[in-house]
Amino acid sequence: MNTNLTQKPHPTAVSQAWQALESHHQQMRQVHLRGLFADDPLRGQRFTAEAGDIFLDYSKNIITSETMALLVRLAEGCHLKQKVTAMFNGDVVNVTEQRAALHTALRMPENAELKLDGINIIPAVHAVLRRMAVFSEQVRQGGWRGHTGKRVRNVVNIGIGGSDLGPVMAFEALRHYSQRDLAFYFISNVDGTDFQEVVSRLLADETLFVVCSKSFSTLETMTNAQSARQWLVEKMGNDETAVAKHFVAVSTHAEAVAQFGIAPDNMFEFWDWVGGRYSLASAIGLSTMIAIGPEHFYALLAGLHTMDEHFRTAPLAENLPVILGLLTIWYNNFFGAQTLAVLPYDQYLKRFPAYIQQLSMESNGKGVTVEGSPVNYQTSPIYWGEPGTNGQHSFFQLIHQGTKLVPCDFIGFCQSLNPLGKHHDLLMANFFAQSEALAFGKTEQEVKADGVQGDLVAAHVFPGNRPSNTLLVKCLTPATLGQLLALYEHSVFTQGAVWNINSFDQWGVELGKVSAQRIFNEMQHPDLALAHDNSTNGLIGRYRQLK
Ligand code: F6P
User: Fold this and answer.
1) Ligand 1 center to residue 508 CA distance, Å?
2) Phi, psi of 543 (to 5 degrees)
3) β-strands 382-384, 267-269: how paired?
4) How much is the pTM?
5) Catalytic residue status for 513
6) Among candidates 496, 391, 362, which has minimal Cα distance to 80?
7) Contacts for 172 with CB less than 8 Å, ≥ 6 apart
8) Strand ranges (DSSP E) for 188-316?
9) Is residue 245 flagged as an active site residue?
10) Could you read off the pLDDT of 151-166 as tens digits, one per residue?
11) Does the C-beta of 433 come closer than 6 Å to ligand 1?
């Protein structure tokens, strides 16, 4: 493991900007947000930015105008603008897989043109969207009938990683807009419990399985899909022809889908230039479209596109994803922060932190540059989080008074989708209170003025100076969700561009997969001698005995 992770990337402009930030950090580590706000009464207006329907207040960060200027200089030195153009143009930015990363093309309007290898890919994108819309309406309106002639009541998405987290996050986020006489379920884990606990509640003849897998070879998804198929066929009196009315597939691999027994008519395609964790706007969003309807799904795409266009065209200093990305670098690489908390104050966004976790950590959890040399600086922080106010009664203690610096993103909405008495004002009062308390804390003097005395004073002091961003949006809609998703996608891109890493591959998931296959084989053949290390041999041996 590389232990000297505080140095700069290599090219001269970058190293100069990096050094300037390092010496600037020496000053900034002495300042307190209390002082920064006292010195600049308009700070809360100065450090704000807006794009689409998203308002960002980043004034509660340990920054000055100089910090932001230096960070932008760093981004320029890393050719961020050129890298953005390359991604949007379809250049091979995923160098280790020799692919473009064109998720932004999935959100482009029908009349747009984007050529990849000389072919305009937008018509194909919209052709699939139209097929998805027709199919979704059939399911929603009851035109799509199951094998016994019953309409679909349950939609079960089978997938994992990006083929699960996008659909489940979007369904939960947009549940308010969903058709309530349809129930949605998500099976991802290879643990049979995930499968059993879902299907035990369902009537097979009212159930539609949407098998989502870019590769159509992922162990978990294929195992769950086979079990689903077996379950359905058994429930249908061992009639294999039932599969046609109860299974559809979303994949880039038509052959593997056909081999599984799903007809081409029941397959919705996407393309290898869409990364798994960037695939929600592709046919991977089929279950979302069935839930919320084509019109809302198109609004989600339009929201994504709004933020794409902002990212592509806005100057770096006013660019929301760039600002978020650079602030992440500021804390990660200069303050040594290890993590970043994503804190949506909206119950509908309960899976949003998990989605952002895969997006960020699978994209930027890398240790080599695009040229293949080991990095000698930190890359992605650990993203984590829970919705507010639940988190306040669990881990917020550490963020307020612990020894670790945890930059926070607070995400809140001015209007509730479920107005109920004082609930929303109470929720949002907590939302505003937390970032205020984190920034300004409570001094010893203030604690004493409250009547706390003696040994108790120290425990009641809040140091403050704990940075946060506030993302404030009028209302959670398909369009604003789209904007939020693209905001984080492009923040992740900005970070990867500065760290000079490939944000679009994920080789780090391979080793464990290969090893698991070998061990699985050893479990199926208990007579096979084990040739792992002493610990792994012992553990597998014990499992063999006790299973
Ligand atoms: O775990 C790695 C990964 O490839 C993710 O990047 C991806 O989202 C997930 O597996 C699922 O892959 P697939 O859609 O091919 O089944």
Assistant:
1) 12
2) -60, -45
3) unpaired
4) 0.97
5) yes
6) 496
7) 348, 349, 350, 351
8) 207-212, 247-251, 267-269
9) no
10) 999 999 999 999 999 9
11) no
